[in-house]
Amino acid sequence: MIHPSIFKSYDIRGVYPTQLDEQGAELIARAFTAVLRPRRVVVGKDVRASGPALAEAAIAALLRCGVDVIDIGTVSTDMFYFACATLGVDGGFTVSASHNPGEWNGFNFCRAGAQPLGINSGLGELRDRALQANVADDDATPGKREQNDVWPAFADYVLSYVDRSLIRPTRLVANGNCGLQVQALRLVIERGKLPIELHAIYDQPDGKFPVPGGVPNPLLPQNQGELIDAVRQHKADMGVAWDADGDRCFFVDETGYFISGYFATAILARSILRQTPGAKVVIDPRNVWATQDTIAELGGETVLSRAGMTIIPENMRAAGAEFAGEMSAHFYFRKNWYRDNGMIPLLLMLELLGREQKPLSALVEPLREHYFTSGELNFECPDTAAVLAAAQRTFADAHTYTIDGLSAEYGDWRFNLRGSNTEPLLRLNVEARSAAALATGQRKVQELLQANGCIPAHH
């Protein structure tokens, strides 16, 4: 079973087994082989209950097509990218549905060197072949399968990003959202002999995701409260949370303030620009002022890019950028093959606090004082294109650009309005230089949306 709707811009995601089952996994693996013609690939999976069955079906199909498989077992997505880049393979996939609920599963693909496979760079062809069953034939000589435990090498690799001597004794609360990243962190602490006192919540892998609301996504407000409470209860120096597949990283300061990926990008840029003066940093246009101002003050340069985990690496490569940060808390590094990683940002943040001898709140406070944001507001609209066109007419007196949806800037407030890549929604972000300007700007855009038949999405 393969339902056509499971093919997204960056990956495959659907409900198991009604939209994607073992037979579908087999067709997808054979289509992958037909598109890439690989000799040797990496296969991993996340903690979902359907992962073993789907991964086995996909591996069996690869072997029958004569492809050698390096089975890296249950891993975080950043471990999968690491394996694709370091094991001398032609590409690979991990069976994962990122932060979706437990009944979902899917595939995330790489070419050699961990290069992403997106809808315009191979995934579209893979989709067409899988749906038409126009896939690689079984080869007469079956491929070989080997197991590889990448955990220790991954831990050593992420530790190479920091000067461990600068990391001071830290009380840290970590929320793994029932994925693997807390277990990976324990290995990093042990191998790096880091002076970290760890308090963990949702640290045991559980594909049913018994977290608030059943969605292992720290971006959702209902998933933030327990971490904030635990940071305060343990009088911790910092909190960190990951989504279930571990490729996004969120921070809470010692006061219990949950830091947006937007502000975290501005803070992490301090570390990047210290190591690489004058570096370029890629950001998405949803919120920009805090990052643009901070990076300019530090002597760096910002480059705007459409959001998306296959788009950002392409634009980083084209710009020669050192680092990229998205509002969604994906953080990308040139040295990490331009891919996102969930562990490196934590280590950089720990090193930064040690180097600057400040609490995390001291780095967040100037941003909180000068930049005011609405958070991402989602709307269901009858005609997304018509709404964007109406917004362009209404706000024609602003400085506008269309890198990702519509961005419009005035002196004291700005907004970005864009269609979601993964859901039938319009997403609105407003930011301003004062609370009053934020309220005014947000009201103006929401009035336009309401006049064009849009209603707030409650989910």
What is the element layout, followed by pairings?
Blueprint: E1 12-15, H1 22-36, E2 40-45, H2 51-64, E3 68-74, H3 77-86, E4 91-95, E5 104-111, H4 119-132, E6 145-147, H5 151-159, E7 170-175, H6 181-192, E8 196-201, H7 225-233, E9 238-242, E10 249-253, E11 258-259, H8 261-275, E12 280-283, H9 289-297, E13 301-304, H10 311-319, E14 323-325, E15 331-333, E16 339-340, H11 344-356, H12 360-370, E17 372-373, E18 377-380, H13 384-394, E19 399-401, E20 406-409, E21 413-419, E22 426-432, H14 435-451, E23 455-456
Parallel strand pairs: 2-3, 2-4, 3-6, 7-8, 7-9, 12-13, 12-14
Antiparallel strand pairs: 1-5, 4-5, 9-10, 10-11, 14-15, 15-16, 17-22, 18-22, 18-23, 19-20, 20-21, 21-22
Helix pairs in contact: 1-2, 1-4, 5-6, 8-9, 8-11
In CATH, the homologous superfamily of the largest domain goes by the name: Alpha-D-Glucose-1,6-Bisphosphate, subunit A, domain 3
CATH topology of the largest domain: Alpha-D-Glucose-1,6-Bisphosphate, Chain A, domain 3
Molecular shape:
globular
Q: How much β-strand is present in the residues?
A: 15-25%
Largest sheet: 7 strands, antiparallel
